[in-house]
């Protein structure tokens, strides 16, 4: 194999080497398969670029497979609908590049090795996620594959590959920032164009390439109806690019100017980029967002620097935490000082305690908190500033830090369209367990964990406006849902009229 590659070698990890000792020129014919997991896009995707490059260098055909689990960390219609509609678009677009896309369903530990065996693949390429469920699934897949297969993992999600940025658990943004910034000249570079595959995929499993997306999406949305889809967030790569830099309401084109001043004001949600759903599902590349943001830095230096701090340093710090701290979602994963302090205060008397049901329904004595909870339930995306207040109040109102953490993660993953993300686990850990933060003045219940309260919010933004903004949002959504339900009932009662 030629030594030059389209992808920086530091972005690729070898998870398994083939035991075949053939010269590369003889390793022809066996296809390259890209098992797409976290980076569900065609454009700006290092894993796909690597898979196609590898195929072209070994004169082999290439395919993309995606495995849809029957259940994945409790995802419901809101998240699965968004994901599958994005994949439907990707399927259409990738076929025009002559790369077949296969949708497998069931346990990836079984479907992926079976697929690889059936098509006689010699190379498997996959993208990277630090989450334990994905890592252990990948380990099992690697174990179950043939000895002749090589497996490459490409970090297509982070601007600086997680393992290149740091080989250890970082203490805070302060300790990882310099390491990331030092590597940006190497990694924050323009993407090469995706080469067309030289060798065609012919004949193999062509029956599996046909996907009835509409029926599949209908089924998944029906089964996950407990948390319905949201209309405002259009799925897919094209929509993600529109949110980033569209001419009508794009973040960089129209909204960036106020990012550094208004991003902590929940009354002005449009000041935020709104990119997290696309970043979470990999429908947009963080590297593309950073490259485009840098182009307008001369005009808005402060806004761009603040955005890049969130997009690169904070987001990639979350991947670092989840990768190097196996207990990333439990009190055990907190720093020693925080664990001790929270444990010392676990039995402090709480002014209020609420059950999961009361919290889920937004039935507390705090109208600001209730509004944030309902924003998440009905809108599917709570404002970033409110997420901190929201999680900290759960610590104040539940029996202890373990319960607070598990409730906040449960609700976050259930309702947020960007849930089940390393930034979600770390957001809850930061708010409740002081991860990546420092110790503060000791107080009841919180111990040394940073405290937030209603009065502080009142000083920062117009609390009443936020509450009425959420109220009207809930009422509009409820009306729409009622009308839709009525329409469905009518079409069942009078099928001909429709
Ligand atoms: C309790 C809690 C729960 C959270 N849950 C999630 C979650 O489930 N999924 C999720 O993606 N983020 C989560 N965050 C982080 C952050 O609040 C969201 O990423 C952000 O609000 C998303 O909106 P945006 O894309 O419009 O943000 P912007 O401010 O426009 O930020 C741009 C991007 O930078 C990254 N970013 C911004 N803030 C943070 C942060 N604090 N930590 C890490 N990355 C950040 C995100 O990728 C975001 O999309 C959580 C934070 C807290 C405190």
UniProtKB/TrEMBL annotation:
GO molecular function ontology, one term from the record: deoxyribodipyrimidine photo-lyase activity
Give the protein's function: Involved in repair of UV radiation-induced DNA damage. Catalyzes the light-dependent monomerization (300-600 nm) of cyclobutylpyrimidine dimers (CPDs), which are formed between adjacent bases on the same DNA strand upon exposure to ultraviolet radiation. Required for plant survival in the presence of UV-B light. Not involved in the repair of (6-4) photoproducts.
Q: What is this protein called?
A: Deoxyribodipyrimidine photo-lyase
Tell me which Gene Ontology terms the entry assigns under biological process: photoreactive repair; UV protection
Give the Pfam families listed for this entry.
Answer: DNA_photolyase
| Record key words, sorted | DNA damage, DNA repair, DNA-binding, FAD, Flavoprotein, Lyase
List residues of the Photolyase/cryptochrome alpha/beta domain.
Answer: 30-162
Query: Does this entry carry the keyword Flavoprotein?
Result: yes
Q: What is the source species?
A: Raphanus sativus
Q: Which InterPro entries match?
A: Crypto/Photolyase_FAD-like_sf, Crypto/Photolyase_N_sf, DNA_photolyase_2, DNA_photolyase_2_CS, DNA_photolyase_N, Photolyase_Class-2, Rossmann-like_a/b/a_fold
Provide the transmembrane region boundaries: none
Q: What is its EC number?
A: 4.1.99.3
């Amino acid at each position: 194999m030629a030594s030059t590659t389209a992808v920086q070698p530091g972005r690729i990890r070898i998870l398994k080497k083939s035991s075949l000792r053939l010269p590369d020129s003889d390793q022809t014919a066996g296809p390259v398969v890209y098992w797409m997991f976290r980076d569900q896009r065609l454009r700006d995707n290092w894993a796909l670029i690597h898979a196609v490059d590898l195929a072209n260098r070994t004169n082999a055909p290439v395919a993309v497979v995606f495995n849809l689990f029957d259940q994945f960390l409790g995802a419901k219609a809101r998240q699965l609908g968004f994901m599958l509609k994005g994949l439907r678009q990707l399927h259409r677009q990738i076929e025009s590049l002559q790369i077949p896309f296969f949708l497998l369903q069931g346990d990836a530990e079984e479907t992926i090795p079976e697929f690889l065996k059936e098509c006689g693949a010699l190379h498997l390429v996959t993208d990277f996620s630090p989450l334990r469920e994905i890592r252990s699934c990948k380990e099992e897949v690697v174990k179950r594959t043939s000895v002749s297969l090589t497996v490459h993992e490409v970090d297509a999600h982070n601007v600086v590959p997680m393992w290149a940025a740091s080989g250890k658990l970082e203490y805070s943004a302060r300790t990882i920032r310099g390491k990331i910034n030092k590597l940006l000249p190497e990694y924050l570079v323009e993407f090469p164009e995706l080469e067309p595959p030289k060798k065609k995929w012919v004949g193999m499993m062509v029956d599996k390439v046909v996907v009835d997306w509409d029926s599949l999406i209908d089924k998944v949305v029906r089964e996950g109806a407990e948390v319905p889809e949201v209309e405002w967030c259009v799925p897919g790569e094209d929509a993600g690019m529109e949110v980033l830099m569209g001419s009508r309401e794009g973040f960089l084109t129209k909204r960036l100017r106020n990012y550094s001043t208004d991003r902590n004001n929940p009354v002005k949600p449009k000041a935020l980029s709104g990119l997290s759903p696309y970043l979470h599902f990999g429908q947009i590349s963080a590297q593309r967002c950073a490259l485009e943001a840098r182009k307008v830095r001369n005009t808005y230096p402060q806004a761009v620097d603040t955005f890049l701090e969130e997009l690169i340093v904070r987001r990639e710090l979350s991947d670092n935490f989840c990768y190097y701290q196996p207990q990333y979602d439990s009190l055990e994963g907190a720093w020693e000082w925080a664990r001790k302090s929270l444990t010392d205060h676990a039995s402090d008397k709480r002014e209020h305690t609420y059950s999961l049901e009361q919290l889920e329904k937004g039935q507390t004595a705090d109208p600001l908190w209730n509004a944030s909870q309902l924003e998440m339930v009905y809108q599917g995306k709570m404002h970033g500033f409110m997420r901190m207040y929201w999680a900290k109040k759960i610590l104040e109102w539940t029996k202890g830090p373990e319960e607070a953490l598990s409730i906040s993660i449960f609700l976050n993953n259930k309702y947020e369209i960007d849930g089940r993300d390393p930034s979600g686990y770390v957001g809850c850990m930061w708010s409740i367990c002081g991860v990546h933060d420092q110790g503060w003045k000791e107080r009841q219940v919180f111990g040394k964990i940073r405290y937030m309260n209603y009065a502080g919010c009142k000083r920062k933004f117009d609390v009443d406006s936020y509450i009425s903004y959420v109220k009207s949002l809930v009422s509009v959504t409820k009306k729409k849902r009622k009308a839709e339900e009525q329409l469905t009932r009518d079409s069942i009662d009078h099928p001909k009229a429709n």
